[in-house]
Amino acid sequence: MIFNIIKNIFLYSIFYNVAFAQINIVTTTPDLAYMARIIGGSNVNVFSLLEGTEDPHFVDATPLFIQKAAEAKLFIQVGLGLEEGWTPRVLGRSGNRSIQQEGEGLCTVGSDVTVLEKPVGKVDRSMGDVHGEGNPHFHLGPEAFKQGAHKVYKCLLKIIPEKSDELTKGLEKINSEIVKAQKDTSQILKDIKNKVFAEYHKQFLYFFHEYGLKHAEPLEEIPGVPPSAGRLLSRAMLAKKENLYLLIATPYHSKKTLNKFRELSNVRFLILPSGIKEGTESESFSFYKLQTYLAKELARE
């Protein structure tokens, strides 16, 4: 009797753990983690290597990153050259065969996105941080974000095909959020369509493009290289002719450089998040919250 009870409890625990086991997913950015969590739901345990406050171009391949990659069933990256300075080391040192190039567990989202600014001709390092496959900062454009989410859905479907119904519901949920974000953000931005904006680095290009906002040259002359004193002066002079309204930067851009540009041009700058941040629910942005927050900040007088 006791033996049978113990046996049943043991068998039930095995069944429970198998039936409700979550797969480990590692993403390079919080925006990709958000996609995976919404689509995967209770089937996934998601860890983002970045918190959303770093420059994703320049990151160290830490032991923690390698450990997390080693445990991952699915590794999701932006691609388009964004993480090429560090993810190859993370993947290579992880010892996880399934997440290597061409592996079933490697998901490169940017390959399914309609990219902007795909350069024509040869690209080399003398041109700075120019991405040969196009601008990788697609996550701020609703339609591009939707395309990215669909790629994440396809990658998850390969790993857990038996959960297709749940994954489809997750995809529908995130698509509904994107549609609502588009509608409400467009309404907030409607009165500033005649304003001219510029960026420190071209991270908000998809946002500008999809919402029809006017934008001028970035502060950087060479992508990824801090602007020189000469560049700041020439850009400040051009800003007056363009009637530049606002310069947008992110928290990791040089405050000293931004203040100097403001002094030269009399154009104010605004520091904004460039994506969804990892953290507690109260600290984090959903896609909807991020879109409407950016719009409200840009529209603020």
Structure description:
With 301 residues, the chain is of the alpha/beta class. The protein folds into two domains: 2-182, Rossmann fold, CATH 3.40.50; 187-299, Nitrogenase molybdenum iron protein domain (Rossmann fold), CATH 3.40.50.1980. Helices cover 45% and strands 10% of the residues. The protein contains ten helices and eight strands. It has helices at 2-19, 30-40, 63-70, 87-94, 142-159, 164-189, 205-211, 229-242, 255-265, 287-299; strands spanning 23-27, 44-48, 74-77, 106-108, 196-199, 214-215, 246-249, 269-271. The strands form two sheets. A four-stranded parallel β-sheet has the order 2-1-3-4, with helices on one face. The chain has a four-stranded parallel β-sheet with strand order 6-5-7-8, with helices on both faces. The longest helix is centred in the middle third of the chain and has 26 residues, at 164-189. The protein is globular and about 60 Å long.
Radius of gyration: 22 Å
Shape: globular
Q: Predict the CATH topology of the largest domain.
A: Rossmann fold
Number of domains: 2
The first-level CATH class name of the largest domain: Alpha Beta
Largest sheet: 4 strands, parallel
Number of H/I helices: 10
Write the layout of secondary structure elements.
Elements: H1 2-19, E1 23-27, H2 30-40, E2 44-48, H3 63-70, E3 74-77, H4 87-94, E4 106-108, H5 142-159, H6 164-189, E5 196-199, H7 205-211, E6 214-215, H8 229-242, E7 246-249, H9 255-265, E8 269-271, H10 287-299
Parallel strand pairs: 1-2, 1-3, 3-4, 5-6, 5-7, 7-8
Helix pairs in contact: 2-5, 2-6, 3-4, 5-6, 6-10, 8-9
